[in-house]
Amino acid sequence: MKINYELTQEDYIGFNFNFIETSPVMKRSLFVQRFLFPIIYLILPKFLSPIMDIPYWFLMIFFAATALLWMGFYVKWYKRRIAKNIKKMLNKGRVPGIVGKHELVIDKVQISDKTLESFTNYNTVEKLNETKTFFYVYVNEVMAYMVPKAAFENEAELQQFRDLVAQLTIKKD
Fold it and tell me: What separation in angstroms does the CA of 142 have from each of 55, 59, 70, 109, 120?
Protein backbone atom coordinates (compact mmCIF):
# COMPACT_ATOMS: atom_id res chain seq x y z
CA MET A 1 0.00 0.00 0.00
CA LYS A 2 1.35 3.40 -0.98
CA ILE A 3 0.01 6.65 0.51
CA ASN A 4 0.98 10.14 -0.68
CA TYR A 5 0.18 13.16 1.46
CA GLU A 6 1.44 16.52 2.64
CA LEU A 7 1.97 17.70 6.22
CA THR A 8 1.86 21.30 7.43
CA GLN A 9 3.08 23.04 10.58
CA GLU A 10 -0.44 22.82 11.97
CA ASP A 11 -0.47 19.05 11.41
CA TYR A 12 2.75 18.64 13.39
CA ILE A 13 1.44 20.89 16.15
CA GLY A 14 -1.76 18.81 16.18
CA PHE A 15 0.33 15.65 16.59
CA ASN A 16 2.07 17.15 19.60
CA PHE A 17 -1.26 18.20 21.14
CA ASN A 18 -2.57 14.68 20.57
CA PHE A 19 0.50 13.30 22.31
CA ILE A 20 -0.07 15.63 25.28
CA GLU A 21 -3.71 14.58 25.52
CA THR A 22 -3.13 10.82 25.21
CA SER A 23 0.16 10.22 27.02
CA PRO A 24 -0.38 9.22 30.68
CA VAL A 25 2.91 10.88 31.67
CA MET A 26 2.01 14.17 29.98
CA LYS A 27 -1.53 14.16 31.38
CA ARG A 28 -0.18 13.62 34.88
CA SER A 29 2.44 16.33 34.40
CA LEU A 30 -0.15 18.84 33.19
CA PHE A 31 -2.43 17.96 36.09
CA VAL A 32 0.35 18.53 38.63
CA GLN A 33 1.42 21.79 37.00
CA ARG A 34 -2.15 23.01 36.79
CA PHE A 35 -3.17 22.26 40.39
CA LEU A 36 -0.02 21.98 42.54
CA PHE A 37 1.11 25.57 42.07
CA PRO A 38 -2.31 27.01 42.98
CA ILE A 39 -2.28 24.93 46.18
CA ILE A 40 1.10 26.43 47.00
CA TYR A 41 -0.33 29.89 46.29
CA LEU A 42 -3.08 29.24 48.81
CA ILE A 43 -0.54 28.23 51.48
CA LEU A 44 1.81 31.19 50.95
CA PRO A 45 -0.35 33.87 52.65
CA LYS A 46 -0.06 32.01 55.97
CA PHE A 47 3.73 32.48 55.92
CA LEU A 48 3.98 35.81 54.12
CA SER A 49 1.46 37.73 56.22
CA PRO A 50 3.60 37.90 59.40
CA ILE A 51 6.81 38.52 57.47
CA MET A 52 5.46 41.30 55.26
CA ASP A 53 3.11 42.75 57.86
CA ILE A 54 0.21 42.61 55.40
CA PRO A 55 -3.22 41.40 56.54
CA TYR A 56 -3.78 37.70 55.95
CA TRP A 57 -7.18 38.21 54.31
CA PHE A 58 -5.69 40.67 51.77
CA LEU A 59 -2.95 38.24 50.75
CA MET A 60 -5.43 35.38 50.66
CA ILE A 61 -7.69 37.25 48.23
CA PHE A 62 -4.73 38.10 45.99
CA PHE A 63 -3.28 34.58 46.00
CA ALA A 64 -6.70 32.93 45.61
CA ALA A 65 -7.40 35.07 42.54
CA THR A 66 -3.98 34.16 41.15
CA ALA A 67 -4.62 30.46 41.83
CA LEU A 68 -8.01 30.56 40.09
CA LEU A 69 -6.56 32.33 37.05
CA TRP A 70 -3.72 29.82 36.91
CA MET A 71 -6.09 26.84 37.03
CA GLY A 72 -8.39 28.38 34.44
CA PHE A 73 -5.85 29.46 31.86
CA TYR A 74 -2.77 27.29 32.35
CA VAL A 75 -3.63 24.62 29.76
CA LYS A 76 -4.41 27.24 27.08
CA TRP A 77 -1.18 29.08 27.84
CA TYR A 78 0.80 25.83 27.81
CA LYS A 79 -0.60 24.80 24.41
CA ARG A 80 0.13 28.26 22.94
CA ARG A 81 3.69 28.01 24.22
CA ILE A 82 4.13 24.53 22.72
CA ALA A 83 2.77 25.73 19.35
CA LYS A 84 5.08 28.76 19.37
CA ASN A 85 8.13 26.62 20.18
CA ILE A 86 7.27 24.08 17.48
CA LYS A 87 6.86 26.80 14.87
CA LYS A 88 10.20 28.27 15.90
CA MET A 89 11.89 24.84 15.62
CA LEU A 90 10.36 24.16 12.21
CA ASN A 91 11.24 27.61 10.89
CA LYS A 92 14.85 27.20 12.00
CA GLY A 93 15.02 23.82 10.26
CA ARG A 94 15.70 21.81 13.41
CA VAL A 95 13.20 19.12 12.42
CA PRO A 96 13.89 18.56 8.72
CA GLY A 97 11.49 16.62 6.55
CA ILE A 98 8.44 16.78 8.83
CA VAL A 99 6.61 19.49 6.91
CA GLY A 100 6.00 18.88 3.22
CA LYS A 101 5.18 15.99 0.93
CA HIS A 102 5.46 12.41 2.15
CA GLU A 103 5.22 9.00 0.54
CA LEU A 104 4.43 6.23 3.00
CA VAL A 105 4.80 2.64 1.81
CA ILE A 106 3.43 -0.28 3.77
CA ASP A 107 4.55 -3.69 2.56
CA LYS A 108 4.88 -7.17 4.06
CA VAL A 109 8.14 -6.31 5.81
CA GLN A 110 7.97 -2.74 7.03
CA ILE A 111 6.44 0.73 7.03
CA SER A 112 8.68 3.21 5.29
CA ASP A 113 8.58 6.93 4.64
CA LYS A 114 10.31 7.25 1.28
CA THR A 115 10.53 11.02 1.68
CA LEU A 116 12.58 10.83 4.89
CA GLU A 117 14.22 7.55 3.89
CA SER A 118 13.18 6.02 7.18
CA PHE A 119 11.64 2.64 7.85
CA THR A 120 10.09 0.79 10.74
CA ASN A 121 9.82 -2.94 11.10
CA TYR A 122 6.39 -4.09 12.16
CA ASN A 123 7.54 -5.49 15.48
CA THR A 124 8.34 -1.96 16.68
CA VAL A 125 4.88 -0.51 15.96
CA GLU A 126 3.45 0.26 19.39
CA LYS A 127 -0.06 1.51 18.71
CA LEU A 128 -2.43 3.20 16.32
CA ASN A 129 -4.12 6.36 17.52
CA GLU A 130 -6.98 7.60 15.36
CA THR A 131 -8.46 11.10 15.53
CA LYS A 132 -11.08 12.80 13.37
CA THR A 133 -8.55 13.80 10.74
CA PHE A 134 -5.40 11.69 11.34
CA PHE A 135 -3.91 8.30 12.03
CA TYR A 136 -0.85 8.30 14.26
CA VAL A 137 1.14 5.08 13.95
CA TYR A 138 3.39 5.16 17.01
CA VAL A 139 6.76 3.46 16.66
CA ASN A 140 7.80 4.44 20.18
CA GLU A 141 6.46 6.56 23.02
CA VAL A 142 7.02 9.93 21.29
CA MET A 143 7.50 9.17 17.59
CA ALA A 144 4.82 8.35 15.08
CA TYR A 145 3.98 8.36 11.41
CA MET A 146 1.31 11.00 10.86
CA VAL A 147 -1.13 9.98 8.14
CA PRO A 148 -4.01 12.31 7.27
CA LYS A 149 -7.29 10.60 6.52
CA ALA A 150 -7.67 12.91 3.53
CA ALA A 151 -4.80 11.01 1.86
CA PHE A 152 -7.10 8.03 1.26
CA GLU A 153 -9.21 8.02 -1.86
CA ASN A 154 -12.21 6.26 -0.33
CA GLU A 155 -13.56 4.65 2.82
CA ALA A 156 -12.47 1.17 1.72
CA GLU A 157 -8.83 2.25 1.42
CA LEU A 158 -9.08 3.96 4.79
CA GLN A 159 -10.47 0.78 6.38
CA GLN A 160 -7.79 -1.34 4.70
CA PHE A 161 -5.08 0.87 6.27
CA ARG A 162 -6.80 0.73 9.66
CA ASP A 163 -7.02 -3.08 9.51
CA LEU A 164 -3.44 -3.51 8.33
CA VAL A 165 -1.97 -1.39 11.13
CA ALA A 166 -4.24 -3.07 13.68
CA GLN A 167 -2.89 -6.47 12.57
CA LEU A 168 0.66 -5.21 12.95
CA THR A 169 0.12 -4.07 16.52
CA ILE A 170 -1.61 -7.37 17.43
CA LYS A 171 1.27 -9.44 16.01
CA LYS A 172 3.65 -7.65 18.35
CA ASP A 173 1.79 -8.85 21.45
Answer: 48, 42, 27, 22, 14
